[in-house]
Amino acid sequence: MTRDVITIDADRPVVEVARLLLDRRISAVPVVDPTGRLLGIVSEGDLLRRVETDTERRRSGWHALLASNWSLAAEYVKSHAGRAADIMTRAVVSVSETTTLGDITDIFEDRKIKRVPVTRDGKVVGIVSRADLLRALVTATSAEPASPAGDAAIQAELIAELRRQRWARSTGVCIEVQDGVVRLSGTVPPSDAERTALRIAAERIAGVRTVEDAMAPVEPRPGM
Length: 224
Prior knowledge:
By secondary structure, the protein is α/β, with parallel strands linked by helices. The protein has two domains: 14-140, CBS-domain; 151-217, Histidine-containing Protein, Chain: A (2-Layer Sandwich). It contains eight helices and eight strands. Strands 5, 6, 7 and 8 form a four-stranded mixed β-sheet that branches. Strands 1-2 form a two-stranded antiparallel ribbon. The radius of gyration is 26 Å and the shape is elongated. The model has no long low-confidence stretch (mean pLDDT 89).
């Protein structure tokens, strides 16, 4: 996570929030009270529909007639309010310092958000963005590569990996390894996904020089 978190108070003028996002090249900023407790978050999306830029939402015809007073009032607040407190998203999803990267990724996908504050006792101590996950990927892949394994070790590691993957149970793949060349034969479902996944599983093992695909597709039985 990014520990040096930029935050704002609830009374920060909207135009200053927009300027802060631009100057710091960030896409959102947490809103906190004087003790650092998380109150909400203002993102670029909260600033898109503004009367100053003539981008406020305009409903016409049946859309205007069917819209509730509540939704119309909420849209007016978003486009006309002058303080962060009035435009911020209050139902903020946050995580703790012990939340795994996998769980954070699930949150990003399920909630369709790009960043999540990290809190301790309700106070902001960091923030994790999609960019932080990319940095984690780069860090993980820049580590010293493992020493190449022998043919027997490569075969054993690949077999163990496929046993851990449910999608591999539908394959009838045979694995041979000679001088770092993995030859995959036997049968595989007609989908390209399983065939590609088998190749990638082999390529990720240290010591594998190349993968030869000699697998034959087999159609699933009726009713399966």
